[in-house]
Amino acid sequence: MSRDGTTTVAGPVRVLVADDEPMIRVGVRAVLATDPGIEVVAEAADGHEAVELIRAHRPHVAVLDVRMPRTDGIDAAAEIRRTLPGTGVVMLTTFGEDDDILRALGVGAAGFLIKSGEPEELLAGVRAVADGAAYLSPKVAARVVAHLASTGAGALAERRGAAQERVAGLTPRERDVLAHLGCGLTNGQIARRLHLVEGTVKAHVSSVLARLGVDNRAAAAVVAHEAGILPPPPPEHR
Fold first, then answer.
1. What is the C-alpha to C-alpha distance for residues 122 and 135, in angstroms, rounded to an integer?
2. Is the pLDDT of residue 153 over 50?
3. Helix, strand or coil for residue 177?
4. What is the dihedral sign for C-alpha 112, 218, 202, 161?
5. Could you tell me the strand order of the sheet in which 88-93 lies?
6. Cys-Cys crosslink for 133: which of 62, 63, 128, 147, Cβ 3.0 to 4.6 Å?
């Protein structure tokens, strides 16, 4: 897998989309169609149908709604990870509740996105999971950090101190890039925010992941949240 989070699957990334609402499926397909390197090969209306279609089509990634009839997305994810491990799973939900997030990650889902997120998050999530990496939307990453702080994983102050120690070895520009990774931005979006060439951002992302000792952008985003270095929101255009 590429350390900067770019896709390394040979040929187009094959995707199955499962949601019980036809309009949502159409919307997800439309977003994915904006990337010529992604191909939607099947659609399902529930988790049971999704598993059957994955057996038939063997996609690289399954994008599953959490709440569906017959078999919900999390139960389907568990079945996929157990019997069809070649397909990575991205969960998609309107809710983003902690129990759903933790259940999904617990059964082996590699991505978790909120439907109200930016289209770029869906594209980045599918690409990352196709490469065997993990991807959490910024809102989900923040919830995971909060959960870890409230359970036996250590007090928030202790986790923040440890994260800040890890970040201390970064250059100022790498810290800027990490902060924007924590917001779930793509390389192109970061380049525009920081007025850099996209190739330069890609190099910085690779360096940040290596220096932090993490394998993917989602893990780096969690470090950014723990260290408390997220950037301020961009100014509103009037």
1. 10
2. no
3. helix
4. positive
5. 38-44, 13-18, 61-65, 88-93, 111-114, 135-136
6. 128
Distance CA 23, CA 138 (A): 25
Distance separating alpha carbons of residues 106 and 89, to the nearest angstrom: 12
Residue 220: closest CA among 234, 207, 232, 203:
207
SS3 91: strand
Supply the DSSP string of 57-80, one letter for each residue. Answer: H--SEEEEESS-SSS-HHHHHHHH
Q: Dihedral angle at the C-alpha atoms of 41, 43, 48, 54, nearest 10 degrees? A: 0
Q: What per-residue string of b and e applies to 27-43 under the rule 16 or more CB within 10 Å gives b?
A: bbeebbeebeebebbbb
Which of 13-17, 90-94, 110-114, 153-157 is least confident?
153-157
- Give the residue among 39, 38, 42, 43 at the shortest CA–CA distance from 23: 43
* pLDDT tens digits, one per residue of 53-103: 999 999 999 999 999 988 899 999 999 989 998 999 999 988 666 677 777
